[in-house]
Write a structure and sequence with these properties.
The chain has 355 residues and is an alpha/beta fold. It contains eleven helices and 16 strands.
């Protein structure tokens, strides 16, 4: 019987176990030019016993930023700073993928020196507020991307992926979940376009397909993963047809031979969609399952019964850097201080420790 503590070959990257650290926004890029600092080196190095670390979301461009103090991978200084992180993880025998995340409409002009608007498939503002260094700000309507800029952003993802490999990452994960740009193209309430990028299911999945193909061509499909969250309402997303959209998307991506598909379950009632995608995708399948409270050892049976190849853990990795050891012994666990977090579960905590 396969267990969470068995090694696995991730398309050529050898992982010591099947426990992944889920990506969680930290907002700790306090260096010049939004570079990560020594605290980030320490943070990821402490958690190198994970079979795979997936970093916080890293913006591929200036306008891709969605939160205060989040890091990028679009300058030489940022690449050099991330190299210290990857060196620290590798020195302890760990493996680390960079999550590339374009926030799309989730952002605010105060994040940018020139006060620019965020960009998105359509000029539809998200409900709610963004917490900034100036306090909470209502989301504003983004600028709708013209077709030529959509193509340019596809290229930015590919360039950021090349920068990630230069920085020493073992691969990249594309953030297609949680209401950010790729997800905004997939969802009918955020994508009102009538051109080749919107309308039909075929058109709404086009951006995700083109970004994934471009990144796979740039760094190799075996070093490329994709994270999706079918039916997830986070960041004011409303998906009426996840049972149709996501199988169509995976059908287009299956021939690429991706390193992995990562599903985050934000809606407990959609396990059937998870299982359908698991059956459809022939590569490594990572699952961040819907659970009551932070995901712990009680979820490990999902590997044993074949639901997933790798399980991703979020909140408990914040409070328990040695989480694989604690999972094996079924605890005890340090309790995450969720008062510092936004998100409500282990699907992508946001930590603003300096605010």
């Amino acid at each position: 019987m396969t267990t969470a503590f068995d090694p696995i070959d991730l398309s050529g990257t050898q992982l010591g176990n099947r426990i992944a650290m889920a990506p969680m926004t930290r907002s700790r890029a306090h260096g010049e030019g939004l570079t990560v600092t020594d605290s980030t080196v320490e943070y990821y190095g402490q958690r190198a016993s994970a079979g795979l670390i997936i970093t916080e979301g890293i913006q591929p461009s200036v306008v891709g930023r969605g939160y205060p103090s989040t890091p990028g991978l679009h300058s030489a200084e940022q690449v050099a700073a991330w190299r210290k992180v990857t060196d620290a993880v590798h020195a302890k025998g760990g493996k680390i993928f960079a999550q590339i995340m374009h926030a799309g409409r989730i952002g605010h002009p105060v994040l940018f020196a020139d006060g620019r608007l965020s960009v998105a498939p359509s000029a539809v503002a998200a409900a709610g507020q963004l917490y900034t260094h100036e306090g909470p700000k209502d989301f504003v309507a983004p600028r709708e991307l013209p077709g030529d800029e959509v193509r340019a952003i596809v290229g930015e993802f590919a360039e950021a992926a090349r920068n990630a490999i230069e920085a020493g990452f073992d691969g990249v994960e594309l953030h297609g979940a949680n209401g950010y740009l790729i997800h905004q193209f997939l969802a009918p309430n955020t994508n009102l376009r009538t051109d080749e990028w919107g309308g039909s299911v075929e058109n709404r999945i086009r951006f995700a397909v083109e970004v994934t193909k471009a990144v796979a061509a740039a760094i190799g499909a075996e070093r490329t993963g994709l994270r999706l969250s079918p039916g997830n309402p986070y960041n004011d997303i409303a998906e009426t047809d996840p049972e149709t959209v996501y199988p169509a998307l995976v059908k287009e991506l299956e021939p690429l031979g991706l390193g992995y598909l990562h599903i985050v379950e934000m809606v407990p009632g959609l396990r059937d969609v998870t299982l359908a995608l698991r059956k459809q995708f022939s590569g490594t399948f990572i699952l961040n399952p819907a659970t009551e409270g932070p995901t712990d050892h009680r979820a490990l049976g999902l590997i044993e019964d074949g639901t997933a190849d790798i399980l991703a853990f979020g909140a408990l990795f914040l409070a328990n850097p040695d989480l694989p050891v604690r999972l094996r012994s079924e605890g005890p666990y340090n309790t995450p201080d969720t008062a510092s977090f936004f998100g409500g579960d282990d699907k992508g905590y946001i930590d603003y420790p300096t605010l």
